[in-house]
């Protein structure tokens, strides 16, 4: 069956049912924009950022510190990770590999994630700068960090990894930065994620 | 010929319920976006593996190879769409060279095995095999990803080194994808792969 659209920009009222827009070539017009804009405007996207430099623990330590995001047991949601950023705000004490690790741990204490729709509802997901965790597994290798003195570098970008939905935390799991060696407080981290009702 | 109609505004449809397609006030179709791997991850089709400690690497196209490899074993019944590759230097490398990805017609991996994880935490196991070192068939360098040098770690800050394959390489059963280094290094690299199984 052939279906007709309607050429040109329309001015429809919310809740009405109308022909889909097409252009002069017959192509169907698709609403675009920032790919997370729809989820953000629906209040489903959250983030957390270290508010001051944090110390990190070495490798797969269970007495972990840094910045983590967790999906608490029985939350009823899935956490879809969007992005992760890391930056050195001070010279780091040691060098190593940086990545992301996953632990089957239900977080118990929380920093305060923000809804990316300013004024939106609170997150169900939790965030922490450190707690005892179940032995994690290194999932993603993202790069390296060194001990360069801050007087040897100028302005530089935060290092941001586009997770792009490729990690989903079910209830009872958490994600955290992995660093090969521990360091005194020198890193700032951030995570962005979307929360959706769990479908299983 | 009927109109292709849609409805303006966000709806609240329950699972299993059919409803009108959504459109904007200008008539455009609204198509769900978001993380482009989210649907595949929620469906339990995304997997990854990483070395859990630094590894040595072997030179160029050597067959007594070390680093990180993923294998789609013969008879697996799946294709592996490679999505991302990441690497990092845990300590300064002792030699310099290029880093890349190479392919070998190696049908299985049996030594130095690593366990791939499902990116939906708690999801089903992967059919893929992974190893940190194995004898492989003579490989071919497919992708050049970057370089590595011998600069001291005291000269670097934070640098992310990941390569977005974005499905541009599909591993058929009976093949193995391996890391490539021009010159052999001591234990200094950590690698990871991310892929979808379909």
Q: Would you summarize the structure shown here?
A:
The complex is a heterodimer of chains A (200) and B (198). Chain A is mostly beta strands and 200 residues long.
Low-confidence stretches of chain B: none
CATH class of chain B: Mainly Beta
Structural class of chain A: mainly beta
Determine the fraction of residues in helical runs of chain B and give it as a percent range: under 10%
SSE arrangement of chain A, N to C: EEEEHEEEEEEEEEEEE
Characterize the main sheet of chain A: 7 strands, antiparallel
Number of domains of chain B: 1
Number of helices of chain B: 1
Which strand-content bin applies to the residues of chain A? Answer: over 45%
Feature tags:
heterodimer; A: 200 residues; mainly beta; 7-stranded antiparallel β-sheet; 1 helix; 2% helix; 46% strand; B: 198 residues; Jelly Rolls; 6-stranded antiparallel β-sheet; 48% strand; elongated
What does this structure look like?
The complex is a heterodimer of chains A (200) and B (198). By secondary structure, chain A is mainly beta. Chain A folds into two domains: 1-30, no CATH class; 37-197, no CATH class. Helices cover 2% and strands 46% of the residues of chain A. The mean pLDDT of chain A is 92. Chain B has 198 residues and is an all-beta fold. Chain B has one domain: Jelly Rolls (Sandwich). Chain B has one helix at residues 38-42, and strands at residues 5-8, 22-23, 29-30, 46-50, 55-57, 64-72, 80-89, 97-104, 113-114, 117-118, 129-135, 140-148, 158-160, 162-171, 175-181, 185-197. In chain B, strands 4, 5, 7, 10, 14 and 16 form a six-stranded antiparallel sheet that branches. A six-stranded antiparallel sheet of chain B has the order 9-11-6-15-8-12, with no helix packed on it. Chain B has a two-stranded parallel sheet with strand order 1-2. At the A-B interface, β2, β4, α1, β8 and β9 of A face β1, β3, α1, β4 and β7 of B.
């Amino acid at each position: 069956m052939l279906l007709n659209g309607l050429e040109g920009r329309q001015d429809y009222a919310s809740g009405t049912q109308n022909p889909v827009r097409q252009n002069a070539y017959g192509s169907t017009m698709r609403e675009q924009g920032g790919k997370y804009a729809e989820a953000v405007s629906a209040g489903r996207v959250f983030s957390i950022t270290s508010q001051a430099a944090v110390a990190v623990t070495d490798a797969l330590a269970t007495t972990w510190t840094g910045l983590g995001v967790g999906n608490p047991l029985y939350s009823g949601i899935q956490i879809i990770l969007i992005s992760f950023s890391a930056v050195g705000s001070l010279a780091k004490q040691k060098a190593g590999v940086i990545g992301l690790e996953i632990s089957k741990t239900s977080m118990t204490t929380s920093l305060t994630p923000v809804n990316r729709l300013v004024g939106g509802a609170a997150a169900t997901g939790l965030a922490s700068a450190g707690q005892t965790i179940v032995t994690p597994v290194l999932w993603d290798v993202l790069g390296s960090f060194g001990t360069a003195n801050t007087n040897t570098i100028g302005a530089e970008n935060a290092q941001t990894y586009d997770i792009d939905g490729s990690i989903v935390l079910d209830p009872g799991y958490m994600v955290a930065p992995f660093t090969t060696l521990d360091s005194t407080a020198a890193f700032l981290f951030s995570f962005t994620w979307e929360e959706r009702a769990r479908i299983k | 010929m009927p109109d292709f109609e849609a409805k303006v505004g966000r709806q609240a449809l329950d699972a299993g319920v059919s409803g009108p397609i959504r459109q904007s006030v200008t008539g455009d179709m609204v198509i769900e976006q978001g993380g482009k791997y989210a649907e595949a991850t929620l469906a339990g089709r995304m997997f990854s593996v990483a070395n859990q400690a630094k590894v040595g690497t072997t030179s160029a196209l050597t067959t007594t190879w070390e680093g990180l490899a993923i294998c789609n074993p013969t008879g697996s019944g799946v294709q592996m769409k490679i999505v991302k590759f990441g690497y990092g230097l845990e300590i300064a490398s002792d030699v310099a060279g290029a880093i890349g990805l190479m392919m070998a017609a190696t049908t299985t991996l049996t030594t130095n095995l690593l366990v791939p994880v499902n990116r939906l935490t708690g999801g089903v196991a992967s059919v893929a095999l992974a190893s940190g070192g194995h004898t492989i068939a003579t490989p071919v360098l497919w992708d050049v990803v970057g370089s590595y040098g011998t600069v001291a770690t005291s000269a670097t800050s934070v640098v992310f080194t990941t390569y977005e394959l974005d499905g541009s390489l599909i591993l058929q059963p009976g093949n193995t994808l391996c890391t490539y280094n021009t010159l052999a290094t001591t234990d200094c690299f950590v690698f990871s792969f991310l892929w979808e199984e379909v």
